[in-house]
Amino acid sequence: MSVIHIHRHHHLGMPEARKIAFLWAEQAEEKFDMECAYEEGDTQDTVYFTRAGIKGTLQVLGDQFEFKAELGFLVSAFKARIEAEIAEQLDTLLHPPKVGKKKKPAAPKA
Predict the structure, then answer these.
(1) How far is 64 from 42, CA to CA, in rounded Å?
(2) Which structural domain, as residue segments, surrounds residue 89?
(3) Distance (Å, rounded) from C-alpha 6 to C-alpha 103?
(4) Biggest alpha carbon distance in the chain?
């Protein structure tokens, strides 16, 4: 069995981390057809997720996220792609693009 482990530190605190985790669970259900269950705790929340060939957890703390998933035999062939997509999704949620910031156009060449 193949395992994916992604760890991300943050400085959001638990209330904001919880919001990000809820968004992640919604996106996982929509984009990856996962079934997610959310369990709130005092110092740590856990998102449990599953679908055919994949099961795992997203541990949510005030200063970090820890994603662990076990991939079944057939799904493990796509481990690199799945890991990259999950990492990108978490990174995007943790560091959303700044709204209103536009790059300055390059100066015309003479």
Answers:
(1) 15
(2) 2-94
(3) 31
(4) 62
